[in-house]
């Protein structure tokens, strides 16, 4: 073999080695996971996907065909044992707590709220099994075509404050996700919530794509309004607006979301909490393929952070 050819091979080998190291080095700075049911609702299938990409974090929502809070505790323990066996930590437990219309202050409404408090108790029990200290919640919803009534905000804030007190007593933190058709949809509304409810156990699951879908320029405008210390968790993906103005989810890098800019800003702001790829967009080749497409693009972005 000629010296020239040998040098070429050594250079190629070094480049390949560097490419293998880059994701791991980048991921040591950004604690990234994937929502497991965006890969597969079978826990072990999702775990194998995560490990294939060197990820050691996951967000849990649905497992084996049911929301985690609807699964018997024995099944939750089974899922936990699988995650632990394969070195996967749970960053946050996804729940549907307060993802309901605000119940009226009537006997029926109070019964509806009692069901929500039971749901929170169930969520804390499961989060404890998974070893997660954060629980994703919401800030009540309204129906499509309906406008949110600002008169409801003081009561919503008080209920969230009460939820935070309950969670803190059990050593959990609640992360309100900004989501469509919710009283907290955008960065503006999230900032108003954080201003109104100053509690150490209440923060955000910041979803800039949901805020963007709501018409806000979520980065940098929406993000700029937020206190980074009150962001407990972040959802990453991408979206684009069609000619008709309707928003659709798409693979990371194929839409309008400036993931690189936001990640750089969050790093500069000292954000140390967790991130989740919440894929959402669908591929004809299936959920796992859609998540793999977005994850590969996201890892390339993370390398540049």
Explain what the structure shows.
This protein has an 8-stranded parallel beta barrel with strand order 1-2-5-6-7-8-9-12, surrounded by 5 helices. A two-stranded antiparallel sheet has the order 3-4. Helix 3 packs parallel to helix 4. The protein is built from 10 helices and 12 strands. Residues 1-22 have low confidence and may be disordered. Strand 7, helix 6 (187-196) and strand 8 form a beta-alpha-beta unit. It has a single domain (25-304), classed as TIM Barrel (Alpha-Beta Barrel), CATH 3.20.20. With 305 residues, the chain is an alpha/beta fold. It has helices at residues 3-29, 43-52, 73-85, 107-130, 153-169, 187-196, 208-213, 218-224, 259-268, 287-304; strands at residues 31-35, 57-60, 62-63, 66-67, 89-94, 134-137, 173-177, 202-206, 231-236, 238-241, 247-250, 274-277.
């Amino acid at each position: 073999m000629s010296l020239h050819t040998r040098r070429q091979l050594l250079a190629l080998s070094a480049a390949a080695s560097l490419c293998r190291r880059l994701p791991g080095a980048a991921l040591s700075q950004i604690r990234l996971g994937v929502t497991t049911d965006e890969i597969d609702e079978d826990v072990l299938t999702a775990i194998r996907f995560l490990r294939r990409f060197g990820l050691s974090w996951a967000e849990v929502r649905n497992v084996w065909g049911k929301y985690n809070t609807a699964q018997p505790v024995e099944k939750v323990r089974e899922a936990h044992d699988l995650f632990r066996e394969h070195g996967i930590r749970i960053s946050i437990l996804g729940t549907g707590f307060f993802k309901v219309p605000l119940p009226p202050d009537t006997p029926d409404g109070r019964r509806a709220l009692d069901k929500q408090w039971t749901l929170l108790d169930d969520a804390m029990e499961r989060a404890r099994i998974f070893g997660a200290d954060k629980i994703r919640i919401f800030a009540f919803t309204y129906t499509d075509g309906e406008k949110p009534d600002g008169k409801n905000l003081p009561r919503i804030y008080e209920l969230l404050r009460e939820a935070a007190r309950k969670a803190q007593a059990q050593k959990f933190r609640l992360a309100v996700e900004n989501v469509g058709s919710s009283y907290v949809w955008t960065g503006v509304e999230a900032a108003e919530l954080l201003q109104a409810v100053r509690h150490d156990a209440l923060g955000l699951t910041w979803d800039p794509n949901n805020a963007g879908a709501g018409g806000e320029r979520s980065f940098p405008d929406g993000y700029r309004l937020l206190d980074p210390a009150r962001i407990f968790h972040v959802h990453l993906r991408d979206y684009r607006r069609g000619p008709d103005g309707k928003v659709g989810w798409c693979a990371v890098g194929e839409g309008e979301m400036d993931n690189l800019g936001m990640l750089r800003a969050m790093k500069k702001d000292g954000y140390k909490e967790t991130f989740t790829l919440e894929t959402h967009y669908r591929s004809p080749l299936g959920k796992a393929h859609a998540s793999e497409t977005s994850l590969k693009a996201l890892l390339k972005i993370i390398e540049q952070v």
